Amino acid sequence: MFVLGNLIHAVANLIDLVLNAYLLIVIARAVLSWVSPDPYNPIVRFIIRVTEPVLGPIRDRLRLPTVAMGLDLSPMVVLLAIYFLKSFLVGSLHDIAASLR
User: What burial letters (b/e) apply to 2-20, b meaning 16+ CB within 10 Å?
Assistant: First the structure.
């Protein structure tokens, strides 16, 4: 059973890595929304293309109020969801992997 435990542990680490990377991309998107970046910059286009499928529906469905000066709160919702997934999902997978070792 230790092989299955190691596999689940590796999957948990991979999910944690992906969530950390997406967390940084969402933070970069929030910072980009405060300035007016060049829309033709490939990095800016990548960040927008990767985050918009998640941020767009949150903006539409939750109809989050924009605070003064047009502050978008959808990145905060995504960051909270990422922290929840890291705590719940990754933590649970690590616990399952530990119990199988």
Answer: eeeeeebbeebeeebeebe
Work out the burial of residue 78: count CB atoms within 10 Å of its CB; fewer than 13 is exposed, 13-18 middle, 19 or more buried: buried
Q: Is the pLDDT of residue 1 over 80?
A: no
65 pLDDT tier (thresholds 50, 70, 90):
low
Half-sphere exposure of 75 (CA within 13 A, CB side): 19
Single out the residue of 50, 46, 49, 80 nearest to residue 62, CA to CA: 80
d(CA 87, CA 94): 10
Q: Which two tokens stand for residue 42?
A: 């490939």
